[in-house]
Write a structure and sequence with these properties.
The chain has a single domain, classed as 2-Layer Sandwich (Alpha-D-Glucose-1,6-Bisphosphate, Chain A, domain 4). It is 26% helix and 33% strand. It contains five helices and nine strands. It has helices spanning 10-20, 23-36, 92-101, 192-200, 203-222, and strands spanning 41-47, 76-86, 112-117, 128-132, 139-147, 150-155, 161-171, 179-189, 226-238. The protein has a nine-stranded mixed β-sheet. Strand 4 (128-132) and strand 5 (139-147) form a beta hairpin.
Length: 243
């Protein structure tokens, strides 16, 4: 795999240009969701440090075509999306089983998970998905880790991002009788084009934020409950010194 900061050429450039034509409906849809959302979104954006580096990928994982953060371009974004869930009788493990059974139950309507490798209804290491979006941010991912109440994706070649994202359910620290659904990502733009989308135009960044906050809200519904206190989104920016 070549460096992700190499120029976008050939078929990949054509795909990027064609994707630009799908921006208007994507932006309209995301804006509509943002302004009409009833759930409160609490956002913070601060400078990060070396503690924001991503966890190591587990040993023995297939790394073919993987876009790690070190392969990306620009600032590393360490983001966490979190929602406390009240009114659910499920355990963290029970909720996670419902979540992994069908990602399209908790993803927003404008994002479709299409499985390209693995057994439907499961989430095993090595499984792969293509996340289809209405703008220039379709993204291939591979499952790199799983647990009783968690799983993680790494991004693959062609994704707008270079990084890792983890989904988990746990008991809330302050209110153990309630659940907490969390999504944590460590990523840099996959190339210079993606850098413009994320850090200059900010469109891809907002689409991503709306996608994962919506996933938090839907996870609460799948649990048979509702969010308590809205969704909290924290962004920490770490300039690693890489290109």
């Amino acid at each position: 795999m070549g460096r992700a900061d190499t120029p976008v050429t050939g078929d990949r450039r054509s795909q990027r240009v064609a994707a630009l034509l799908r921006w208007p409906p994507a932006v309209v849809l995301v804006s509509w969701r943002y302004f009409w959302r009833a759930t409160a979104i609490h956002r913070s954006d601060v400078a990060g440090d070396a503690s924001d580096e991503p966890p190591r990928t587990p040993a023995g994982i297939d790394d073919a075509d993987v876009q790690a953060p070190s392969d990306g371009y620009g600032t590393l974004l360490h983001r966490t999306y979190s929602a406390r869930i009240k009114g659910s009788a499920l355990t963290p493990e029970e909720l996670m089983r419902r979540i992994v059974a069908d990602p399209n139950r908790w993803s927003p309507e404008f994002a479709v998970f299409r499985r390209t490798r693995g057994t439907p209804g499961a989430m095993n290491v090595g499984d792969e998905f293509l996340i289809r979006m209405p703008g220039p941010w379709d993204g291939p991912v591979r499952v790199c880790a799983t647990g009783p109440a968690s799983f993680s994706f790494v991004t693959l070649r062609g994704h707008l991002e270079a990084g890792r994202i983890e989904f988990r359910v746990r008991r809330d620290d302050e209110l153990p009788h309630r659940l907490r659904f969390e999504i944590e990502s460590w990523a840099r733009p996959g190339d210079r084009f993606s850098h413009v989308l994320y850090n200059r135009l900010r469109v891809a960044k907002e689409v991503q934020l709306n996608m994962w906050t919506h996933a938090c809200i839907r996870a609460a519904r799948i649990a048979g409950g509702r969010t308590d206190g809205g969704v909290t989104v924290t962004t920490r920016r770490w300039n690693t010194g890489a290109p």
